[in-house]
Amino acid sequence: MTAEEWQIVWFTTWVSALSTLMILPFGLALAWLLARRDWPGKSIVETFVSLPLVMPPVATGLILLQLFGRHGALGKFLHDTLDLDVIFTWRAVLLALGVMSFPLLVRSARVAFEEVNPRLEQIARTLGAGHWRVFCTITVPLAARGIVAGMVLAFARALGEFGATIMIAGNIPGKTSTLSLTIFQDVQLGQDAHAFRLLGISVVLAFAAVWCSELLLCRKTKTL
Amino acid sequence: MSLLLKNISLPLADFSLEAGFEARKRITVLFGPSGAGKTSLLDLIAGLRQARSAFIQLDEHVLTDTARNFTVPAHQRGIGYVPQDLALFPHLSVRQNLLYGSKSAAEDSHSFTFDRVVEILEIQSLITRGVTGLSGGEKQRVALARALLASPRLLLLDEPLASLDAPLKAKIIPYLIRIRDEFHVPMLCVTHDRMEALTLADEIIVLDGGKVLQAGAVLDVFNQPANADVARLVGVETLQPGRITNVNDGLATVKIGGATLTALASGIHEGDVFVCIRGEDVSLQHDVVHATSSVRNRLLARVISLRNEGALVRVELDAGFQLHALITRPACAELALQQGETITALIKAPSVHLVPR
Amino acid sequence: MYFSFLIKRISGVVMAAVLFTAASLHAAEVTVFAAASLTDSLKSIATAYEKQSGDKIVFNFGASSTLARQIEEGAPADIFFSADEAKMDGLEKKALIDKATRQSRLGNVLVVVVPAGSSLEIKSACDLTNAAVKKIALADTKAVPAGVYAKAWLEKQQLWPAIEPKVVPTENVRGALAAVESENVEAGVVYKTDAGISKKVKVAYEVPATDAPKISYPMALVKESKQPEAGKKFLTFLASEEAGQVFRRFSFILLNDR
Question: Domain containing C145: what range?
Answer without folding.
Answer: 110-206
